[in-house]
Write a structure and sequence with these properties.
This protein is mainly α. About 75% of the residues lie in helices and about 0% in strands. The chain starts with a helix and ends in a 6-residue tail after the last helix.
């Protein structure tokens, strides 16, 4: 999540580097090229690392439902979400995208309670609400910007709306992955998601922007940066996240996901020199409060489970002793 948190600032910095090395009138490191070529580089690295998992024995174990779920996750998190977020990067500040994206943890938490019947402590819900309020305040308190849309008194820029849509797509993919893909090998999950997501994004970009948009896709200058980006952001970040999601609850994943604004805002300041605005300070503070409340809830839930386990263990021991004649009449 620390890697993902810094990814927006890194992406913006890469496009600025590309702007200093124009090819004709074009930036070789455009946002579309970052996503498309970056994913291609990541796919190459994933095949090198996990290619052995793609064998007949493993593939035969996957059901039709597994492939449908893999396809849904690939579309949502491999093509739709990054495409929306990358477009948002072209329209609004990195810090706005980072904070607005925090709609994803509370939404994921709600969906996990509804669809996965996950047990969640009251403090976790309070934390999610606090984080959600922080996001709303970040949007409301923003200074006037160009291309604003008025929605019932709440001003939203197109960039923020795209970031919200991206957060919804990520949340949906997290729930699908947790419910249906926990037993899928990491290599199959990662390679399929990256490959299908890249292909879908490429054709969407062709339809929306035309062939000229990928005119510099074979630039060596672009590829050398994209191997660094794809290896670190996509391969390492994605592998850690998928592995962690398989071995944790959705509520824990949502809590950890809330740490990304800290990494993201710090990265935006260090890499891009973007100083947080007053609205971002206020919203970020509430998000941090939400993290603290959620952490308190998770600790209490863990302590309750430990206490319950001890009670059950003592009762079992007493029952065994009674049955063996050591106690009782």
């Amino acid at each position: 999540m620390l890697i993902f948190g810094a990814s927006s600032a890194v992406t913006r910095k890469l496009t600025e580097i590309g702007a200093q090395h124009f090819m004709g009138t074009r930036n070789p490191i455009s946002l579309c090229n970052v996503l498309f070529v970056g994913n291609l580089c990541a796919l190459i690295l994933l095949i090198v690392i996990y290619g052995r998992q793609w064998n007949k024995t493993t593939l035969k174990q996957l059901s039709q439902k597994d492939w449908i779920s893999l396809t849904a996750v690939a579309i949502l998190s491999g093509a739709l979400a990054p495409g929306l977020i990358f477009q948002a990067l072209a329209l609004t500040g990195v810090n706005n995208i980072i904070l607005v994206g925090r709609l994803e943890p509370p939404l994921t938490l709600v969906l996990s309670i509804w669809l996965l019947s996950e047990q969640v402590h009251l403090w976790e819900i309070a934390g999610a609400i606090a984080a959600f309020v922080g996001v709303i305040l970040t949007i409301i308190l923003q200074p006037p910007q160009q291309a604003m849309m008025n929605m019932g008194g709440l001003s939203l820029g197109l960039g923020e709306l795209l970031a919200i849509a991206g957060a919804i797509a990520v949340s949906a993919s997290t729930i699908i992955g947790k419910k249906y893909l926990s037993q899928i090998p990491l290599g199959i999950y990662s390679i399929f998601r990256t490959a299908l997501g890249t292909v879908i994004f490429f054709f969407i970009a062709l339809i929306l922007y035309g062939r000229d948009h990928f005119a510099d896709v074979l630039s060596p200058f672009l590829w050398q940066w994209m191997f660094l980006y794809g290896g670190l952001i996509v391969v390492v970040g994605q592998s850690f996240w998928i592995k962690g999601l398989k071995t944790s609850t959705v509520s824990m994943a949502s809590l950890i996901g809330s740490f990304s604004p800290i990494a993201g805002i710090l990265a935006a300041y260090l890499i891009l020199g973007e100083v947080p605005t007053l609205a971002q300070y206020i919203g970020g503070s509430l998000i941090l409060l939400g993290i603290s409340l959620s952490q308190l809830g998770i600790r209490r839930k863990t302590n309750n489970r430990i206490a319950s386990a001890k009670v059950n263990s003592m009762q079992t021991q007493q029952q065994v002793e009674t049955n063996m004649g050591f106690k009782g009449i």
